[in-house]
Specification:
4-stranded parallel beta sheet, Rossmann fold
Length: about 350
């Protein structure tokens, strides 16, 4: 999925849904009132939330009076984070997933009630009929909360007594900045969910696992030369590239440099050819075939260093979203960028 503000549409309906939301937003900001461990720290404490608890989220304060019992998730990465914390029994409905769930949470996802679809969010009436006390979405200005599209706005939901939390991202104009959307975004969301649902210890454990996976990559690429990298996401001319935000953070952390500027979305075939990328990552999503994308690159950019060297690697966009699979994507990118590496890809 390639998001929001960018309104990127290609080919199939699934592709349109995937491109609709993945890049438009900002990292959820602020800190919860209760203290939390630093990133990567193992859980050495037994923490419980004292209610009511107030958190900073997306430039505003939200107050949680008790652990939510009727949560609705309006984006797959948010659903995955809730499931990773063992909160499946608190989820009453989710937006339909756009890709298979990671193995670690797939069994818990079985039987979740879908509202909306891959292509669209639930209507106001459908969402309110679930009587949620907690709604978590990605991008609070518009999209899942766009009243002009018949969806319940943040304000309308809050008037019912539900808390609304912007996970990983907040606004539709900040996705290009690595300061607001980066590898750590999902860790912030996990910690906040841990506080909100009184499962902070479990959140610490999941975050520690993610940090260990990242540290393994950082150590492995230390001292390696920086490699010019493009992240191709389909299209036949102009083509779509993934740049800015979490994409740049992943590529940089893996020892590469994105050849396209952070505000790039559509680039001409001439610009892509002139990029001199030594490695091309191919961001696929359900319904998009890697083999055909690779063939397109080979046919249209035969002089590109990456094509000549055969350095074209699939990295599904699901694994470069701010989700519990983000370190899977990071490790695959590191292996692609540095051909001498053979890091074990962590389980999703």
């Amino acid at each position: 999925m390639r998001p929001t503000v960018r309104h990127v549409l290609t080919g199939t309906g699934a592709a349109a849904a995937f491109l609709l939301l993945t890049t438009a937003c900002t990292a959820a900001d602020g800190e919860a009132t209760p203290a939390s461990s630093p990133p990567g720290a193992a859980s050495t404490r037994s923490t419980s939330t004292t209610y009511p608890v107030t958190l900073e989220n997306c430039g505003r304060q939200i107050t949680i009076d008790a652990p939510p019992e009727r949560a609705v998730s309006l984006w797959q990465s948010n659903t995955e984070a809730l499931l990773a914390l063992g909160l499946g029994d608190r989820i009453v409905a989710v937006q339909e997933n756009y890709a298979p769930y990671p193995e670690s949470v797939a069994s818990q996802a079985t039987g979740l009630k879908d509202v909306g679809s891959q292509m669209g969010f639930p209507s106001k009436e459908v969402l309110l009929s679930e009587k949620p006390d907690f709604v978590t979405g990605q991008v609070l200005d518009g999209f899942a909360f766009d009243a002009s599209q018949g969806y319940a706005s943040v304000e309308q939901l809050e008037r019912t007594g539900a808390a609304v939390y912007g996970a990983n991202l907040c606004g539709s104009t900040d996705s290009q900045s690595t300061e607001t959307w980066n590898i750590e975004s999902v860790e912030k969301t996990l910690r906040d969910y841990g506080t909100i649902f009184d499962v902070a210890d479990r959140a610490d454990e999941v975050v520690a696992e993610l940090e260990a996976d990242r540290s393994a990559v950082v150590s492995a690429v230390e001292g390696e030369p920086t490699v010019k990298t493009a992240y191709f996401n389909g299209g036949t001319g102009p083509v779509i590239v993934l740049a800015g935000g979490i994409y740049d953070d992943l590529i940089t952390t893996a020892g590469g440099e994105n050849v396209f500027s952070s505000d790039s979305v559509y680039v001409s075939k001439e610009e892509f050819a002139a990029s001199d990328a030594d490695v091309v990552l191919v961001g696929t999503f359900p319904g998009q075939d890697f083999a055909s994308q690779k063939a397109f690159l080979e046919e249209n950019f035969p002089d590109l260093p990456a094509v000549q060297a055969g350095r074209i690697t699939e990295v599904p966009t699901q694994e470069t979203d701010s989700s519990i699979s983000v370190m899977v994507g990071l490790t695959k990118i590191a292996n692609a960028i540095h051909s001498d590496l053979d890091l074990t890809v962590p389980s999703s």
